[in-house]
Amino acid sequence: MLKLRRSDLRRCAELEQVLFAGDDPWSRAAFSAELDQGHHYVGAYLDERLIGYAGLAVNGRPPHVEAEVHTIGVDPEHQGEGVGKALLRALLRRADEHRATTFLEVRTDNEAAIGMYRAHGFEIVGLRPRYYQPSGADAHTMRREAAGAPQGTEAS
């Protein structure tokens, strides 16, 4: 995984149109704003072409640090090849550097993503009805404690 390049933001927006067409896909400007705010974004590349991207925000100061996965997207032609797992692991390494508890939202009907998140230590902690717009799809809120944090305690 490499740091996401500004030259890839147009490709990110193109992938968003394919991946999230029914749920207000992000624009190039939205990705640019994320980078401007200093959030951690990485890209997966094949022959110099962006095939996946992921972003994480880290908020707070020790000992109260939380991270939030903002997005993970993988080109449909490369789904099922481990790209999403590699992107998630890159984000979690960053969160763990800060000993941050990590949160994310995922569609309740996205069983593949929920399975991947569970395999990486996330648990469902809440439900956000009609979270995704305009589709109105529900989302689970999921949480993962920082690596090495005692279970059942806040790592942040």
TrEMBL record:
Gene3D superfamilies: 3.40.630.30. Keywords: Acyltransferase, Cytoplasm, Transferase. PROSITE patterns: GNAT. The lineage of its organism: Bacteria, Bacillati, Actinomycetota, Actinomycetes, Pseudonocardiales. Belongs to the acetyltransferase family. RimI subfamily. Residues 137-156 are annotated as: Disordered. GO terms for molecular function: N-acetyltransferase activity. This is Ribosomal-protein-alanine N-acetyltransferase. It comes from Saccharopolyspora flava. Residues 1-147 form the N-acetyltransferase domain.
